[in-house]
Amino acid sequence: MASPKKLYHAKKTKDAILTGIYEATELTAVTLGPKGKLVVVAKGSDPRTTKDGISVIKEIGFSDPLMNVGAQLVREASHKVAYLAGDGTTSTAILVEKFCEAANKLCSQGADATEIKRGFEIARDATLEQLKSYVEKITNDDDIRHVAKVSANGDDEIADMVLEAFKGIGDDGVVTLADSMSRKGLTDVAFSSGLELESGYASQLFANSRGDACEFTDPVFLLCWKPVTEFETISPWIEKAHRDGESLVIIAPDFSDEVISICATNAAKKTVSVCLVFGPGNQKTDREDLLRDVAAILGAEILGETKAPEEWKHETDMGHCEHVLITRNKTIFGGARHDEKKFETYLQSLRDSINSDDSSEAKSEYEIEKIKQRLAHLSGGIATIRVGGLTTQELQEKKDRYEDAICAVRAAMGEGIIPGAGVPLLKISKLVSGLIVEGGTLAMSAAFREYGSALKEIAWRLIGSCGADPYEAIPALMCDSKKICFDARDGRVIEDAFATGIIDPYKVVRLAVLYATGVALTYLQIGGGITHDAPNLTMDRIDPLVEPTEGMLDEYK
């Protein structure tokens, strides 16, 4: 028998969704800026405190199903930005709220939704085009430290540790987090050899730690040249690892559903300590080359290429490292163990393939660039920041801020930095509000004004959070200088954001505008709602978000 349903007209649906957006955003927004507050997450018997926006947003849900849709829209946009840029979740939530409020206001005044949508799209494009003019590249260690400090809510210790980690690994290294063993709660940085792959586990059931990750200490690795289609192919290695009390990671180009199901179910029940990882790369040649790279750095042979099953020697042919972290789309090997002479011979063979004089082995520019990328990744190191804390709550809260800082630095190194505190969007708002386009309508002009007004909100909140008066600070910030900014730590306008370190990664702000606008465009098109009277509301991902296309993501870099 079908569960009872309730039907809602457009206004009631949109009002309830907007209420959910408002409630979710206002709670998340208390974490904004250097003077942001902690949020307590009282979940079961393990309460925690956090200033991390995404950690707050993912816990928010409502008993009202339409309000819950609003919370999910905020969560989805913020999660997308966090996934792609690593930071900016609170700013994204604030923009989602203000853009949707603007859309609702215009619709309630009788403006045509299609015209509002066109207006928002033009305003978005103008905003992102103008934002590019504020970008400067990372040029020194101070820039890295400043980005980390801002993202960590002004914490100098976190900024120093993140800078030390990035200085020690070079451009192609990896920074990871771990818990410190210090009884005094001290934090330090450890460096080791390692590698990061852009591929992850075959099922979320393999996750065994925080953040839907799978982590093993001193694991062994079985590398397979061909897809694993039958469980019997790998069962001898799983049984031996289980007998020896070892954690086993199996890397292969693909796995059958049967193999994934058997291994994931047993891993989830903790019957065996195993994880299946998809091999890296897209095309066949890339997959094979990258699998050889993994074998070289882990000191492993490859089952089916360099060794047949009957020739396999567990002690010498398995791969080893000190620690592995596996997520849905990433695998990081820390403290890789290999014979240094063999590894250097492998690196030299890659270098020789670039410089070969043999015409039969001549490489195209594309192939040479690929090999150079592989060499860089193999040569880069792993920096592990071992975070200390005297209590579980303190440790978790610090790790959240370390993670934000690390991700913000990566984003800034990739696409550059802009003045922080929402000032670029504040200054751009004036231009957007006054946009005039050929063939424009009154509804589009109104959309420009409301969109521009929404762009001011981040700066407005940051200025107010430190006790300063936005009505006094904002006129000073609206001058022609593209370096002027506001320091929310002591409530004053500063002349050079880059010199004083009040900066944001450009990528974070760019994606926040893109995805927040996407939510507003979705909200505009809602014409009604249907809810089910189910006893338990699902908190799963929803997909009503009008997402930016790949072209849009690349266009404004």
Describe this structure as you would to a colleague:
The chain folds into 2 domains: 5-136 and 419-535 and 542-552, GroEL-like equatorial domain (GROEL, domain 1, Orthogonal Bundle); 195-338, GroEL (3-Layer(bba) Sandwich). Helices cover 49% and strands 16% of the residues. The protein has 21 helices and 18 strands. It has helices spanning 10-29, 53-57, 65-85, 89-108, 113-131, 141-151, 156-167, 235-244, 257-268, 284-298, 314-317, 340-355, 365-379, 392-415, 423-433, 442-455, 457-465, 470-477, 497-500, 506-524, 550-555, and strands at 5-9, 39-41, 48-50, 174-179, 188-197, 214-217, 220-224, 248-252, 274-278, 302-303, 319-326, 331-337, 381-387, 417-419, 485-487, 492-494, 503-505, 528-532. Strands 4, 5, 6, 7, 8, 9, 10, 11, 12 and 13 form a 10-stranded mixed sheet that branches. A two-stranded antiparallel ribbon has the order 1-18. A two-stranded antiparallel sheet has the order 2-3. Strand 8 (248-252), helix 9 (257-268) and strand 9 form a beta-alpha-beta unit. Helix 5 (113-131) packs across helix 16 (442-455) and helix 5 packs antiparallel against helix 20 (506-524). It is globular and about 75 Å long.
